[in-house]
Known about the structure:
Elements: H1 2-28, H2 30-33, E1 53-55, E2 58-61, H3 64-74, E3 78-83, H4 88-99, H5 101-108, E4 111-116, H6 120-127, E5 140-144, E6 150-154, H7 160-170
Parallel strand pairs: 2-4, 3-4
Antiparallel strand pairs: 1-2, 3-5, 5-6
Helix pairs in contact: 4-5, 5-7
Amino acid sequence: MDRFRTFVLAAIVASFTVGAAGSFLFFYFQDGLDANEEKVTDRSPPEYSAEPIKHGNLTIYRSPAMAFRQAKQASRPVFLDFYADWCLNCVKFQKRMLEDTHLNQALSEAIVLKVIDTDPAFEHYTQEGRFPELNEALPLFAVLNPENELIWKGQDYLDSKSMIQALNQARPTGE
Length: 175
């Protein structure tokens, strides 16, 4: 009986060792597996033909290029909302945008850009380097200045304070 227990214990330890080594090697060399995949180096907002929509008192842009053109013209920061219908906190944030009066006020003075996980622009943002979180989890929010420079990003849909501070920070100087 002791021989059997020793054999089973040795088999379990060996299984864990092989599994751990395999996992390590997979994740260590994972970047090399995507070597044929082109990385986006151009951070220009992608064109996507979608007209802005109304969400309560907010105008939600769906085209990144259109949103940044408007941001430059109006000297406003861009609030980037990465969204998916399956993401419960993404859905909750849509309601919060209207119900949190301080956040709503800050968003009304910004350009709000919503990129849905099924949009062609979503793929662009997953590959362009600034948002690796998109490959792991949603929601993700970002504040950019009108020149498309990242000021802040976060995943806590309840953190209105940081969002508002970042929007204020992203305003062009001279306002």
